[in-house]
Amino acid sequence: MSTVASRDLRNHTADVLRQVAEGTRVTITVNGKPVAEVGPVRASRPQFFAKADLVALLAAHQSDPQLSRDLDDLAGETTDELDPL
């Protein structure tokens, strides 16, 4: 990460943005105090998924199959039979 004074940002905007485009995060300072960070844009992800894409994504990232059984064992019976206070 690099630090750039606001005056230098104003005078060398293209150079700073070139650094950011290359992957560097830049902290902008005013009177020596950090006020902002500029960083590269992350790869965009679709906001909405088609059903088939979502199903494929979930299938590829399933939890450990034993986890469901372990959680069932830990949960035990329901609390429906407990007396209310």
Automatic annotation (TrEMBL):
Q: Which species?
A: Branchiibius hedensis
Recorded protein name is Antitoxin
Q: Gene3D superfamilies in the record, alphabetically?
A: YefM-like domain (3.40.1620.10)
| Compositionally skewed regions (Acidic residues) per UniProt | 73-85
Q: What is the similarity comment for this entry? A: Belongs to the phD/YefM antitoxin family.
Start and end residues of each stretch annotated as Disordered:
66-85
NCBIfam families given in the database record = phd_fam
Function description: Antitoxin component of a type II toxin-antitoxin (TA) system.
- Identify the InterPro entries for this entry: Antitoxin_Phd/YefM (IPR006442), YefM-like_sf (IPR036165)
